[in-house]
User: Fold Flagellar hook-basal body complex protein FliE from Brevibacillus fortis.
Amino acid sequence: MEMSAISQLTPIRTPSVNKPTPAEVSQEFSSFLSDAVNKVNQAQVESSNLADKFAAGEITDLHQVTVAGQKASVMLQMTMQVRNKMIESYQEIMRMSI
Assistant:
């Protein structure tokens, strides 16, 4: 009796999801990396501008300058680590035998 109940079940069909093409994934990843590098550059420029203003006496809050400098430094270090991991991954893929 239980077998007939199981046999009556129909497989659940999942709706087809539009899968992105490799070109679309590549473009999306490329734009993500470009945005990340641009943000790092903006943080570096902001840190440099604040340091210049502090040196000129236009800003008296040393904490603001220090925080901006550390933020830019951490962002750059993270970017470099991501770059290093990407290079390692590429080298590992190239070492794979087919």
